[in-house]
Amino acid sequence: MTNVQCPVCGFADLAEPPWSEAGASDEICPSCGIQFGYDDAAGGDAAGRTEFYRLWRSRWVSDGMPWRSRGQATPDGWDPVAQLRRIGAIEW
Length: 92
What we know:
This protein is mainly α. It has one domain (about 20-85). It is about 25% helix and about 5% strand. A two-stranded antiparallel sheet has the order 1-2. A hairpin with a 2-residue loop joins strand 1 and strand 2 (about 25). The longest helix is centred in the middle third of the chain and has 17 residues, at about 45-60. It is globular and about 35 Å long.
């Protein structure tokens, strides 16, 4: 694992940080399905991205926190609730 976390769902095995000084990674989180630099562009506004992440997370949770990747199998022991706890997004 790389331990680069998704800011939306807390998945901790992204290949690279979602955003850096060079821009977006264009990676798609296999857990929640967000594509960095496409879905979360927010006009380049970091604060707008934070709000967008909150909204994306809310929709993903409402959908039952499904594994979104079609090409990558769900990891053994995958726990979306633990992911959300890890980033402080839930308390239950």
